[in-house]
From TrEMBL:
Keywords: Cell membrane, Glycoprotein, GPI-anchor, Lipoprotein, Membrane, Signal. PROSITE patterns: FAS1. The gene is FLA4. This is Fasciclin-like arabinogalactan protein 4. It comes from Acorus calamus. Belongs to the fasciclin-like AGP family. Residues 28-180, 202-349 form the FAS1 domain. One of its GO terms (biological process) is mucilage biosynthetic process involved in seed coat development. SUPFAM superfamilies: FAS1 domain.
């Protein structure tokens, strides 16, 4: 009997430790880290990580996050003061559903639709208590639409594009094609009732390169002549920009095969220039410790996910930038004031899509892992997942293996005791 009692006590301890380890692994989910594996969602991830909503989300379970890809975010955010931290926070809260919705569950929505409460409802600022969204599915196309339940609302609807990631029963991330705005939200005021500050004038990147920087006359003149510099204003008012500016000497040292860079057609020259700009503000410290080395550029938005990306890593104490055919390093900080950072780089960044051989261009991006996608059951949505938007089966690429590892450790501890 003593042996049986001993065995039961050890078994109870084992179960307790396993449950504890599983709860710890669930609570440690980092949504922004999951999003970092998807360059098409970098702007949305940056808004989320720079707001208090990321911390609110980290302490919750059984939620669904509606993430907006970069191009759709820029298009649908017109008129929304993303420079106001409180406005951004409330809009983001409206994109967090307080219920875990898997892809198959979306396909089983009732024809009448279903109301799902959002995190915005918990703030107490939801007009008329409407802090929910209405999910409906089209009987003809299978498309899932998300909209505010308020009648006569001018807020745009959003359509689910594809599943992005899922940690079963804990976190589901879905891509949607538009930013959702809570009904009755005062987009011109902060949480304290103070009007949002007017947007500041765009930073003149070409003037900084020509006057403040030394030896960047070629890239400054190319940016001005191509009209690419004029595209920066809207980006600065969003997630900001990071510009990699080759020194004049870098243009003089171009290999023979690319001596005709200056004689390229205007549009291809603009492509090369956009390839030197990240559509997010990164100070030097952030580049040195960047989580996802594969970063989209301004040209990625035009060409599609996975194309015209830069691989940014730290090598021998310096920030290295790899295009697939050219390696460069950051040589100096020319300008750094949120939302614009400008860095001098040692070489002209040549995109493999224009200058590389087919074998090089087909080389897969490094350090990006995508697990088996949780694909639509029959594809009847009619909206295929965007490139680069694979669905990981669990957090960190292998959450189940981590939980079983924790369980095995617990068994070992019990046996030792």
């Amino acid at each position: 009997m003593a042996f049986v009692a001993f065995f039961i006590s050890k078994f109870a301890l084992l179960i307790h430790l396993i449950l504890l380890s599983l709860s710890i692994s669930s609570s440690a989910l980092n949504v922004t880290e999951i999003l970092s594996a998807h360059p098409d969602l970098s702007d949305f991830a940056r808004l989320l990580s720079s707001s208090p909503v990321a911390d609110d989300l980290a302490g919750r379970s059984s939620v669904t996050l509606l993430a907006v890809p970069n191009a759709e975010l820029r298009r649908s955010s017109a008129g929304i003061p993303l420079s106001s931290a409180s406005v951004v926070a409330d809009v983001l809260r409206y994109h967090i559903l307080l219920r875990y919705l898997s892809w198959p569950e979306l396909r089983r929505l009732p024809s009448s639709g279903e109301l799902v409460t959002t995190l915005y409802q918990t703030t107490g600022r939801a007009a008329d208590g409407i802090g929910a969204v209405n999910l409906t599915i089209s009987s003809s196309t299978g498309a899932v639409t998300i909209k505010t339940p308020a009648p006569f609302s001018s807020s745009p609807n959003a359509t689910v594009l594809a599943p992005i990631a899922a940690v079963p029963y804990n976190l589901s991330i879905l891509a949607v094609d538009s930013l959702l705005v809570p009904y009755g939200a005062d987009l011109a005021a902060s949480e304290g009732g103070v009007a949002a500050p007017p947007q500041s004038e765009a930073v003149n990147v070409t003037r900084i390169l020509a006057e403040i920087g030394k030896g960047f006359n070629v890239v400054a003149s190319m940016l001005a002549a191509s009209g690419v510099a004029e595209e920066f204003g809207e980006d600065e008012r969003g997630a900001g920009i990071t510009v990699f500016a080759p020194a004049d000497a870098a243009f003089a040292d171009l290999p023979p095969a690319t001596d005709g860079l200056q004689s390229l057609p205007a549009e291809e020259k603009a492509v090369v220039l956009r390839f030197h700009v990240l559509h997010s503000y990164y100070p030097l410290g952030s580049l040195e410790s960047i989580v996802n080395p594969v970063q989209p550029t301004l040209q990625t938005e035009r060409a599609g996910a996975g194309r015209f990306t830069l691989n940014i890593t730290r090598v021998n104490g310096s920030v290295a930038i790899d295009t697939g055919i050219v390696q460069a390093t950051i040589t100096q900080t020319v300008f750094d004031e949120n939302p614009v950072a400008i860095f001098g780089v040692s070489n002209v960044l040549l995109p493999k899509e224009l200058f590389g051989s087919p074998s090089v261009a087909a080389k897969p991006a490094a350090n990006v892992e995508v697990e088996t996608a949780m694909s639509p059951e029959d594809g009847s949505l009619g909206i295929p997942p965007s490139p680069g938007m694979g669905v990981v089966g669990s957090y960190g690429g292998d959450g189940r293996r981590g939980r079983w590892t924790a369980a095995i450790i617990c068994i070992g501890l019990c046996l030792l005791v």
